[in-house]
Fold these 3 entries.
Entry 1:
Amino acid sequence: MFIRNKDLKGLAIRATDGDLGKIEELYFDDETWGVRYFVVETGNWLSGRKVLVSPISIINVNYRDNVVDVAMTQKQVRNAPTIDLHRPVSRQHEAEYMVYYGYPYYWNGPYMWGGSDYPAQLSVPGTVARMAQAEIGNSQLRDSHLRTTAAVDGYHIEAKDGEIGHVKDFVIDDNAWAIRYLEVATSNWWPGKNVLLSPAWVERVSWEESKVFVAATREAIQTCPEFDPTMIITREYENRLYFHYGRPPYWIEEVKDETVLAGMAN
């Protein structure tokens, strides 16, 4: 299922023994565009401290009740390693977090979540999880590439031949917990049109210039299928979008990954 970042904000995070707080924003990895953490405002029970919750911990998402259930306890969260969210989250801090909760490193392995394309597969014992966990001792801790959705919201989109619109929101796949699309408002150039761009088409993000550079022309973006934020994103719509840009869709690569993982499990 797809959900916009704006609709995720404010959802309650519920531990196995009580509420943890509400989602304030997301940290994503600007290399793979995976959603690595929810930033959760804990409210009164933890003196308003903000904590990180990994999608690996998710048990269930109930949009009807606006609740995300996670396999964590309040005691675990209270005693978790402290991370200063006013500063960039370092890979060392991430490593401490992962070890504390017993999660494999997502940066070890060829897929979105290291040994898997989906975080749910890393939350239970299994071949993939054991394989990824075994790599922890040998991991080289590179720099983190974490950015918040709040920081990138509003960035200008720079096409191959000039600027066209700005980032309005993010469309998130709540199965892979990946940013599948940037919602771009192009009303600066012609009235009233929102479009979607895949992060796979992003060449780089310039934090100094507050710009996202994409491998597409302004004309291609201008003439692509329009996106209505109230619409349900169907596979038919996605096919039209990828066909318009002449790019292979993300699900083809995921099928290849699943085939490889199945072979490893056997």
Note: The first strand starts at residue 2 and ends at 4.
Entry 2:
Amino acid sequence: MNDTLESLRHKIEGAHKLESVVRTMKALSAANISQYERAVMALENYYRTVQLGLLACFRQENGLPVPLQRQEKPEGIVAIVFGAGQGLVGPFNDGIVNFTAAALRKLPTPRAVWAVGESIHPRLEDAGLLPAGLFAVPNSVHSITPLVGEILGRIEQTLEARPGTQFYLFHNRPGEGAAYGPVSRAFIPLDEAWRREFTSLEWPSKNVPQAMGEKEPTLTALIREYLFVSLFKACAESLASENACRLAAMQRAEKNIRELSQDLSLAFHRLRQESIDEELFDLIAGAEALEKE
């Protein structure tokens, strides 16, 4: 009986320690969500500025060249998939992997996958998408910029070797509350359809926009910013979704641990009461035996 009580005591202590760890991870996830959501909101304003700059360039001179044109038969397709860098994220990785696999089946071959996140790598392999590149997930907003620079450098190397390669982005985007969902977009090349996307926008004032200086260098600089912001935004949205998923998982875990702790406490008190009752019965029985003698 004492061994059983001791075992339950250890389990209760372990549950309390685990609950403390879960509360800490829950607080960290909530704090991380806030910083990544603020980054996404700030990017929306900057992205809008880049859009208007491109609109000004395209409207001023329709003949401006776009550096990368889409080919009917691409030399290859690269899917850049943003996943989680750590565990305890529930179905976060599985959802984006299944979404990516279904989308890539509709695209021509050859295809390659670049994984952003250590924990998504084995899931891509299980889905038959062996990653040809692996990037570490940033642990803060300030770490996103080096990652984006690394990916853009890898893209540039790939385009130098195979100019007709097409790139697609796959990542989770946060919704309301703890909700999120997978999204994808064609990233490179920037073709006529991409140009029309900007020329269909409306200028926010009645003044006619005009790009100053040389037109092509201005356009090239804006395109670089567009590519940078697009990757940065995809990464920030993925990180916000990851932490929202982890926060929801920690909330479920906290609830389960509390229920388990209550069950263990009830079992401990019941066994202890049974032990006390047995000792009392033994004392009563001993006293009655002495009285008879």
Note: Strands lie at 76-82, 111-116, 131-135, 165-174, 180-188.
Entry 3:
Amino acid sequence: MRLVHELLASLRNFVASVGALSIFFVRVLGQVPAALLKPGYVIAQIHNAGALSLVIIMTCGLFVGAVLGLQGYDLLQRFGSEDSLGTAAALGLIKELGPVVTALLFAGRAGTALASEIGLMRATDQLSAMEMMAVDPIRRVVAPRFIGGVIAMPLLSAIFISIGIYGVHLVGVQQLGVDPGSFWSQMIASVEAGDINEGILKSCVFGVACSLIAVHEGYTAQPTAEGVGRATTRTVVISAVLTLILDFMLTAVML
């Protein structure tokens, strides 16, 4: 009986959390047009979420592509299809690895920064001070950061995919001896617009999800050092799990 009560309590808390997040999302969307009227704030947040994440995105993209080249070559040579390495790597990066790994890295770097920054504002009563001065903190603080994350995520994903393909070429063509003409020609012939659109859609959806989780956790954090740390941890965990769930759902729908 106690187990049933605990399960019902957990279910009730989950439904309440989803409802609170949905209401917060609607509030943020309502302030997006007003935030766009001040592009300086949005550009600054694109820089914070995107440009400051370039080093980790490019480094991980290069080595993910290199590993993909090694593993793909090892697999394809068993079937005598080494020349298809470019096609396999490009499709894997564009449709899956690029958006998913970028979202995980984004949550770990930019998401935690957003959550901790807003959480610190909550802990130091800066958000309460804005409300007392009749300034909506969602419009002034949350919405620009949300927009910046949503815009930065697809751009970072495109950079990750580009660097990843270069990593595959570096290993497959220059190290393992795959014919460069076949590598690029088969890739160009096989990758279709629908594959690119799938990658773009996933990147946009992951950008919305990760940015929303980050700003929500920071905005609702307990005004203590422990609360800010807990919000930062929850941002990474929830964003990672939600990214993988959304990836499965989007892939199932598109297939």
Note: The chain has one domain: 43-254.
